[in-house]
Write a structure and sequence with these properties.
The complex is a heterodimer of chains A (about 375) and B (about 350). Chain A is of the alpha/beta class and about 375 residues long. Helices cover about 30% and strands about 25% of the residues of chain A. In chain A, the strands form three sheets. Chain A has a seven-stranded parallel β-sheet, sandwiched between helices. In chain A, strands 10-14-11-12-13 form a five-stranded antiparallel β-sheet, with helices on both faces. The radius of gyration of chain A is 20 Å and the shape is globular. With about 350 residues, chain B is mostly beta strands. In chain B, the strands form seven sheets. Chain B has a six-stranded antiparallel β-sheet with strand order 15-16-17-18-19-20, with no helix packed on it. Chain B has a five-stranded mixed β-sheet with strand order 1-28-27-26-25, with no helix packed on it. Classes of the chains: A alpha/beta (about 375), B mainly beta (about 350). At the A-B interface, helix 1, helix 3 and helix 5 of A face strand 17 of B.
Chain lengths: ~375, ~350
Amino acid sequence: MAANPATATAASPAASPARIPVTVLTGFLGSGKTTLLNRILTEDHGKRYAVIVNEFGEVGIDADLLVDTDEEVFEMNNGCICCTVRGDLIRTVENLLKRKGAFDAILVETTGLADPAPVAQTFFMDDTVRAAAALDSVVAVADAKHLALRFADSKEAVDQIAFADAILLNKTDLVTPAELAEIERAIRAINPFATIHRTERCAIALDKVLDRGSFDLERILTLDPEFLHGEDHHHDHDHDDPNHVHGPDCGHDHHDHDHHHHDDHHHHDHVAAAGITSVSLTAGDLDPDRFFAWIGRITQEQGPNILRLKGILALKNDEDRYVLQGVHMIVEGDHQRPFKPGEPRLSRLVFIGRDLDPKALEAGFAACAA
Amino acid sequence: MPPAPPEPAASRVATVSKVRVAVAEHALGAYVIAAEFLAGRPAFALGDGTVRLELGGVLETVRTHPTALLAAALSQDGATLYAGGDDGRLVAVHPDGTTEERAAVGRIWIDQVATGPNGAIGFAGGRNAWVIRPDGVLKTFAHPRSVGGVAFAPKGLRLAVARYDGATLWWAGTEAPAQQLEWKGMHAGITWSPDGKFLVTAMQENALHGWRVADGRHMRMTGYPAKVRSLSWSPKGRFLASAGANAAVLWPFHYKDGPMGRPPLELGYRDVFATRVACHPEDDVVAIGYIDGAIDAARIEDAAVVRLREPDGSPLSALAWDAEGGRLAFGGEGGAAGVIDLAG
């Protein structure tokens, strides 16, 4: 059920600026997720959050708008096996809407073992929720010391990293610089597009993770396409280019770190086993008819394998940048803002998924050029 | 994904005539959960945890919950309004503006309330549903996952609970085993036909599902472009009116097999979605509230439509007739609420 994004935009209140921003927080128990959550609940950041936590969580604060729910994932009756959503989330958001004005933003915490797809899909699939709230970003909190082990034993850990717009790599004080570099390489092998923040005890300015708007999306434009292209993403990168970890626009601290080559086959094997691939595609102006037909077909055919897709597009005869995001078979698009004077009319589309065929995607995307 | 609204077919757009009605309207500043007539007195239950009672054009504020009221239902005798809140309390509001706590079930959001025969009260929050029996006993019904809606059978102390993958029919007065009706998916909202023969749920998908209670036979009512959030039975249960489309969709239930194989009526067709429907208590007329705040009334016999309230841009969220069918109470998500007096 991939909607034609052009139609969805025209027909829905998606463009309404009044949609409440939603931040999704993923991460395993012990990653520091609860520490971050407690900070968000107690610190003065100028926003009132309705916080939806899972009932097995450890949040120690009784906030006004703290709701605990049980994650009730169910399949939509639309014949699409990957269209799973969270019923509890739909109900909670519907109830929150009855007290409009009591909060400015929504934060959803997921259990450590949660598949991040259903929570994200809820914000695309349910009309009521979608009209009222918009997914702002998916933030994964990861434990620098134990993430490699998680990758080894948990598909969910890999999925959470693959899904994230931003990753808080926490407990960096507990690992050596070399170990840290290695785990970042493992993360990058799964998700080269997310912003990585290195933290200790989740010490990060909250505006780096909350209410990001499209800030994290912009990162897909700042990545060097030459770097992303031509790599075998089933395996890790072979070179030491520090930019693949610290791009100039990453916005995180530049720690000193070594680029020793460790024997990291252990991690690579698991990433390879997970089969996570990322593909970045670049073009100039796109023909909208051809592009939407193509992206509709790709998401129909390969939806179950596509974890995330994101794009910033230049559509022919359209002065606005068109932003696109998707989860599995669902794609949502919207006009974002006019291209600035002198801003290159560039289309960039990135996929993170399993068993993607970069060559076929490249060819299909190239055929959409105006 | 939200479907594209169909092109308004000019031929299908009903001719709307205007009638003289008196509309008394207030700006209440909070989401209107329910608009009812409490012993004849207009009563608006609001998301901010208050009920506003009207008397002679003046509103009295009755606080039922510290922060949020999530669901409300009028008793069948019309003399008590029951309100559930995010503090796990079910509060009765009396026509004189006094309140009385009827149940407190802990840290649970009570987001479903239903009333039944002989003063029975049902409510739900999270995975539990409760019934306060006429003898005052509070009975708890547990489910594996969240409850989507509750409704009493027209006779007997029997509560139907919409849940994931179907509905459960509990006996509240005896220990008789529950009846399970299965249909895959998330069911939210439930209603029993006035003769007790059919049970209908509103699904997460844009569809209704029905069962013949006697044998569990399925009925699928599909084709809605939006979720069905409002259901209402016409007098004697001849039609089930529903929102969720560019018109009120009325399924015929006066045939032996219910609406099986028969097309529904579509009344009050507009280019925006209907969000609320309320059938007149005596006549074959349905009041329809739309997503733009407009209210129309449509006659079932000839599909004639009259405009009762002009749109204000905010979705209509509550709509109910008084017992005589002379007045219509309404409310919107944006806090507009009022009474339309059809006697003018």
